[in-house]
Amino acid sequence: LAAAKYVGDVRGRGLFWAVEFVADRATRRPFAPGPRPFGAAVQERAFALGVALYPGRGTADGVAGDHVIVAPPLNVTEEELRVVVGVLEEAYRHVEREVDGNAVDGSLDSTRAWKALGCICVRSYVGRAASVKRLFLHRSEIPPPAKPRPVISSVAKPLPNRRAAHHVAVLGSPDVVPEFLRRVAYGVYGLCRGTHSRTGPSLISYCGLMGVGVCSAGYHMTLKYHTQMSDELSMHLLTTPLIYRLLTFRASPRRKRTVGLTLAALFTTVMVVHMAMDEFLLHATAFGAAVYIIATRILAMIPQQAPDPHVQKVLRSVARFGCYCFAFGYAVWLVDGWACRFLTDGRRAVGLPVAFLLELHGWWHLLTAIGGYVAVALVDLLVSGDIHKDPIETLAWPVPFAARFMAHVKE
Fold first, then answer.
1. Is 408 annotated as a binding residue?
2. Where are the domains of the chain?
3. What phi and psi values does residue 19 have, to the nearest 5 degrees?
4. Regarding the domain delimited by 7-102, which CATH topology (the fold level of the hierarchy) does it fall under?
5. Is 237 helix (H, G, I), strand (E, B) or coil?
6. Which of 59, 138, 229, 276 could form a disulfide with 18 if both were Cys (CB 3.0 to 4.6 A apart)?
């Protein structure tokens, strides 16, 4: 590619390479601004062929310009690497022909660009609806994969299987340890320290909390598509029983059946659509709505189940703390996505253990684990009967400390 017509530079080492695109190799003149940069067009074509590239207006070494980044995993095989490079070359040649067939300065025609993007989206969704395998889209002009391999995740399709060494190394990641240990620990604590028998719905709720930790840790260790789906499935397996317990509290058997069948139908629809079409928006919206329903119902039930004003105040503080954990965790998750490169550079600069403070994805897991435990514990308390004494001492750390602090600040 280094000698290609519209390639200005190829930089990198090891398995991380940046390819820069220019309109004129001699003067390094960039393309005129247009509706679709050259790098984005190459990325779209490569994605249609089954390989994920990463376009950008600059690279980590400080060079601005129209780029695509090639970054296969460290354990990629030689055959798999040849497939990735072959797809990159084919995608470049395709866009080069498109530019040469257009008007002046190599800018991509807006109408053709949007038509091409629309065809890619339609073909992608039709293919996803017909099959959930999402393997390579084979083309006769590129070498086929050396061996069939499953998709790793919905955002990294061409990555190969992880090996055992990666599974061991990832156990030290701040993304995995907080999620797994804290959620499992909270589940075990809730089952052991309760004031009443942990059977039936209560057992399901705490096991659901532990299941989120186990499935999320499995996804982070493997990055497979099926483990990603299990991670997202476990989120709904946690919230759906909680909603059922809140909506059917002291309800008639008929209402319980109606609510149960409705929630089961909604749960099945969301997960089938999500897994079959890799449609993230429906999954995220359903989970957000579930969190909202749980939070509002808990706050509404506190005055009904806790006649003592002091106990009401404590329970409201606990509920608000859980909501704050979810909201702040979601905020740092968004910041982690928006400022990933700067956070990565910062972690490399400061080193461990201070770098953990900048691992915002890890903090997202910590905060949502606390919020999930608060939701399960409060639902379990509220539906178990009237609450006549302060239950704060039965809750796990840091909930008692945070609830007292919030109550003190409010006073």
1. no
2. 7-102, 175-409
3. -110, 120
4. Aspartate Aminotransferase, domain 1 (3.90.1150)
5. helix
6. 59
